[in-house]
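Encode chain A's predicted structure.
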Amino acid sequence: MEEGQNISIFPLRLVWAFDEWSGHFPAQTAFAVPKKNFPLAVDRNRVKRQMREVYRKNKTLLYALLKQRNRQAIFMLIYAGKVKPAYLELEEKFHRILHQLEERL
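Encoded structure for chain A:
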């Protein structure tokens, strides 16, 4: 496995490490919202649900990119903001992160 890298576009941060292709899913993804920023679990869970939905809708782009490069990756998507996000804002930032990821591959 390679050294981890990251991309930050506030309020999202994507941390990843690549591995050689093993034939399973091209990406494993985890989502995190710091307790420091959202003390109530209900708020953290809502933000994580929104991030998972954004990922679910756009993972085909990510999978295609990884398959094209014959790579498998482990991702962690972290929400660093202190205010509850709007869904459209998360989606727009995630698209920007995907474009930067594509440039770095």
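The chain has two helices and four strands.
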